[in-house]
From TrEMBL:
InterPro entries: AB_hydrolase, AB_hydrolase_1, AB_hydrolase_fold, Epox_hydrolase-like. It comes from Streptomyces indicus. Keywords: Oxidoreductase, Peroxidase. Signal peptide: none annotated. This is Pimeloyl-ACP methyl ester carboxylesterase. It holds the Pfam family Abhydrolase_1. Residues 20-246 form the AB hydrolase-1 domain. The keyword Glycoprotein does not apply. Gene3D superfamilies: alpha/beta hydrolase. GO terms for molecular function: peroxidase activity.
Length: 261
């Protein structure tokens, strides 16, 4: 565990292993520990970086509104701090949208993209209202009621109980102000669909077969839009296949990383 003071905040992160850099961005409302199965697997061959986003885990909480471009700029500040020039950038759900914005900001430095259980479209009017209402609810009630309500959409109802417990701990441990700021920012996110058609590096698109938040059809659309992409549908997983089915997720990621040379 390490900390860095960057962009006016403290960022908590893990930096493990040596070799080509793999930077992993967690989703909402989680923290860097969601990538533990990948850190354990890939730090043997790669330099794996997993940080807590601002507002989450052990990073600074900044109330208000945090747009995706701010999260993506924090990622760049960290890799610059660590002296990393080129890297593979991967993210799940909101983390995947941060990855897309990262490509928009500093695409030439990215060797490959990993987009897991995410989608590129801008929010609808209904969706914007829903995210803002949820943000207000989290500040008012805390994370526990929301976390218990959505747990078995984040992971499949038949998921390993230890995985479900880990996911619940991450959600209930998140600061309400940090989570609310991210939701307000996501409500106003841009549309990344045109950007995907211009991506010049290879990409891996992964989705859980049972994901209700980002269905397989969303992953198929991203796969079709990206000029150089591979699609992996993980059977028996919902929104977090990297935790629910780590062997399958890791196998797809290892094949992808090997293809980059």
């Amino acid at each position: 565990m390490a900390y860095a003071e960057l962009n006016g905040i403290r960022i908590g992160y893990e930096d493990e292993g040596t070799g080509p850099a793999l930077v992993l961005v967690h989703g909402h409302p989680f923290d860097r520990s969601m990538w533990e199965p990948q850190r354990a697997e890939f730090s043997r061959d790669f330099r794996v970086i997993a940080a807590d986003l601002r507002g989450y885990g052990e990073s600074s909480v900044v109330p208000g509104r945090t747009p995706l471009d701010v999260f993506a700029a924090d990622v760049l500040a960290l890799v610059d701090h660590l002296g990393i020039e080129e890297f593979v950038l991967g993210g799940l759900s909101m983390g995947g949208q941060i990855v897309m914005d990262g490509y928009r900001q500093y695409g030439p430095r990215i060797r490959g993209l990993v987009l897991a259980d995410t989608f590129p479209a801008a929010e609808t009017e209904e969706g914007r209202a829903g995210r803002r209402a949820t943000a207000d609810r989290l500040v008012r009630e805390g994370l526990k009621p929301y976390a218990e309500e959505v747990l078995y959409k984040m992971v499949a109802p038949h998921a390993d109980p230890a995985v479900a417990d880990h996911v619940l701990r991450m959600m209930t441990g998140t600061d309400p102000e940090g989570a609310a700021a991210a939701l307000r920012g996501r409500a106003e996110r841009p549309d990344y669909r045109a950007l995907l058609t211009q991506v010049e590096c290879p990409a891996l698109v992964v989705v859980g077969r049972e994901d209700e938040y980002t269905p397989v059809a969303d992953a198929e659309a991203m796969h079709a839009a990206l000029p150089q992409s591979t699609l992996c549908v993980v059977e028996g997983a919902a929104h977090m296949p990297n935790l629910e089915k780590p062997a399958e997720f890791n196998a797809a990621l290892r094949t992808f990383l090997a293809s980059l040379g």
